[in-house]
Structure formats: C-alpha cells, structure tokens
Amino acid sequence: MTLMFDNISLKSSLLPCLEEAKILSYHRTRLGGQIFHVLLVSQKEAFVKIGKSYEKYEIIEEYKNLSLLQGSLPVPEVYDYITTDSQAMIVLEKMPGFPLNSMISLLGRNHSLSIIKDILDALKSVPNSVKNNFEIASKQELKNIKSLIDNNLINKDNFMKGSRDLDPVAAFNKIQNDLNNHNTQVLTHGDLCLPNILVTIGKWSLIDWGKGGNGDSARDLSALEGSLKRNIDEQAFPQVCEMMNIEMNITLSQKLEIYKLMDLFWYNKSL
Ligand SMILES: Nc1ncnc2c1ncn2[C@@H]1O[C@H](COP(=O)(O)OP(=O)(O)OP(=O)(O)O)[C@@H](O)[C@H]1O
Ligand SMILES: [Mg+2]
Q1: Per-residue pLDDT tens for 225-243?
Q2: Which atom of ligand 1 is the closest one to the Cα of 31?
Q3: Cα(209) to centroid of ligand 1, in Å?
Q4: Model pTM?
Q5: Domain spanning 98-267 has what CATH number?
Q6: 5, 41, 51, 129: least surrounded by Cβ within 10 Å?
C-alpha cells in the first residue's frame, strides 16, 4: 500500500521523516479521516493522521494543542506536520500501551477509575502559563456545527432520535444560549473517552487532541460519562465524581446534556 497525500506518495520528500517509512496498519476514522501506523527509517513507530474538511480542521487544532502541551502532560510528540489547501497531515510519536477500554479486565475496575482520577487531576494542574495559550474550544466547535447545519450535512431524523425531538437548528440555538452560562477557564481534552487514554504499567498518556481547548469541566465529564457507561457500568461515572469531590447537581447534569447534544451533531454527520 502506498500512503497518498494530495496524490504525492509517502516515499516523496513531502515530509522528510516519512521517507521510506513502512506502513504497519491502516485505520479509517469515524469522520472519514485516515490513520496509518508506520515504522520510520529511524526504526521508531509513529501514527500518521490525514484529513480533509472538518478532519483537516481537527488536525490543525491537534498540532497547535500538542505543541502547547509538550512537557506539561504525557502526550505524543509531533514528529512532523503539513497542511495544503485541502488537507492536513500530522506525524505523531507512538505512545506506549493500549487503550484503557481494552485494559479494564486486566487492570481491574478500581485501578482503571483511579487512572481517570489521575488524568482529571493532571488536566487541572496544567499551569496557567500554558493554559492561557489555548483557545475557547466551544466557540470554534459552534462555528463548525453551524457550518454542518448550513451545508445540510446532518441526518435530521437520526439526530432527532437522540435529541428528544429537537431539530438541529433548535438544538443549535439551545446550545448557543446555554453555553453563555458555562465556564471557560478549564483545560479540556474535548473527547475524553477511554479509547483516547493509553495505558501501560504505571503510566498513562492522552492522545487525540483535535478538540482540545479551554472550557467548562463538564465538557470532559460528559464524554467520560458516556464512555464509562459503555465500557464499565452505570456506577463508574458517579464513582469518579465522588473520587473528585464533584457534586452531581441539576446545573451539572444540564451542562452534561448540552455537551451530549453537541456530540450528536458529529455522530449524525454524513461523510
Ligand atoms: N500517538 C499515538 N500513539 C499510539 N496510538 C495511537 C496514536 N495516535 C492514534 N493511535 C491509535 O489510533 C486510534 C485512533 O486515533 P485517534 O484517537 O487519534 O483518532 P480518532 O479520530 O479518534 O479515530 P476514531 O474516529 O477511529 O476514534 C487510537 O485509538 C489509537 O489506538
Ligand atoms: Mg480517538
């Protein structure tokens, strides 16, 4: 297989680090992007993400976010990065370990939840000098959602099955209105689900930073709630909240609903 980027093969000198790289595996992302697991000539393994349209936008954000986070959180190093008019490509250090969702039975429930607590604590302790350089994530996400609606890219019927019958425009207006009352001071990952947490003995790392940015802590809690329900059980999320001294009140549960509603646009986007 030849890795193509704007019709230029991987063997081209487009990105020097990819010259003569071997492709180990290929994966298509939910939104239509491409991810290659490669072996570089230096014998280091890397992940190459390539995307167009909204995926391109996320790769650009991932590049900016990872550059800001180096040294503050365990995240992949960016080996290389390029954008063209239509696409973006990033070459990332392969982080050790396996996705947390595949490690729960091995690690045990309590240890898995304690890793999640460590991650939430680590996100909170990123210094202001780093955090202040991030953009407010939901502002840009709202612009992207608006453009999905304007370009008729949402499957309305499916969307309304998950939105308690709000149509995409009504949901967008509700989100826009409610976000005015959310905080913007916390560094959020934006897709804090178990597959984006890689774990190995005594270590964890966080990948997939395309939606990262400052926002309300409910943004990450919302993704976490869904992922914990899917991968562990109903009690896992309340347990994490208890470990973090987070009170599950009406304000928080309304905020969680807003971020779920935002996600629904991406789950119902036609490719
Ligand atoms: N730097 C990395 N180190 C190790 N594994 C990685 C790295 N980047 C990506 N992967 C692997 O590729 C998978 C998909 O990558 P990523 O999460 O960045 O993209 P995605 O847009 O979420 O893809 P999908 O839509 O399929 O979930 C990850 O779950 C992980 O298994
Ligand atoms: Mg991911």
Answers
A1: 999 999 999 999 999 999 9
A2: 25
A3: 10
A4: 0.94
A5: 3.90.1200.10
A6: 129
